[in-house]
Design brief:
single chain; 206 residues; mainly beta; 6-stranded antiparallel beta sheet; 5 helices
Length: 206
């Protein structure tokens, strides 16, 4: 379990980058975790999804949080706000990467998630990163309709994934950024010592 003080105070945050070296913190691109090998019908219940990213929960190393997004870009962009965001975010037991490409996005080149760098939230807002865990969100668009209902419903910000932090090698040549050079923002119910389901989200783009 990580330092739980950071959950409450939000004066500091964890910054992660994309890396070619495996730090055992998860990955972006590639195959989904093996946990989903028998769950295709459940994950794709409403629409066909691509796997995007899995990160190990810094406060419980036995858990992961995985993100899936609709294969169809028009579906992604037409449903990018809470409570109707089309992203699927799932907290689940930690597993290795699957050997199967059931959910794999062919446009992305797998990269690992680096070790965390703990910095002040104020300084993090000036940095480029792949993932910013806790602190406050670094928004592309400041309109509060993205998150007001989340706050009203008792959810707090947990992390964002920002395409500004992609290395040049993450997207295959002549392919597009999956979120239009944007960022995903994930929210959850945050208790004294844990991050609880359900995990809700929205995303913005440039």
């Amino acid at each position: 379990m990580g330092d739980l003080k950071i959950l409450k105070e939000r004066k500091e945050c964890m910054i992660f980058q994309a890396s070619e070296n495996d730090s055992r913190n998860g990955w972006i691109g590639g195959n989904a975790p093996a946990y989903f090998d028998e769950l295709e019908a459940i994950v794709n219940k409403e629409t066909e999804l691509h796997f995007y990213l899995s990160i190990v929960n810094p406060f419980d190393k036995n858990e992961m949080i995985s993100i899936f997004a609709p294969k169809n870009f028009e579906e992604r962009i037409s449903k990018n706000k809470y409570p109707n965001c089309s992203l699927v975010t799932i907290k689940h037991p930690r597993t290795e990467e699957s050997k199967f490409d059931t959910f794999t996005n062919p446009d992305l080149v797998k990269h690992f998630i680096s070790e965390a760098n703990i910095v002040s939230d104020k300084n993090a807002l000036k940095e480029s990163f792949l993932i910013k865990f806790l602190g406050t969100p670094k928004h592309i668009q400041e309109e509060d309709y993205y998150y007001k209902e989340l706050h009203d419903d008792g959810f707090g910000f947990i992390f964002q994934v920002d395409e500004e932090g992609y290395p040049d090698t993450l997207i295959k040549p002549r392919k597009s950024y999956p979120f239009a050079f944007g960022a995903i923002y994930l929210y959850a119910q945050i208790l004294e010592d844990s991050i609880e389901n359900p995990i809700k989200s929205y995303w913005q783009y440039s």
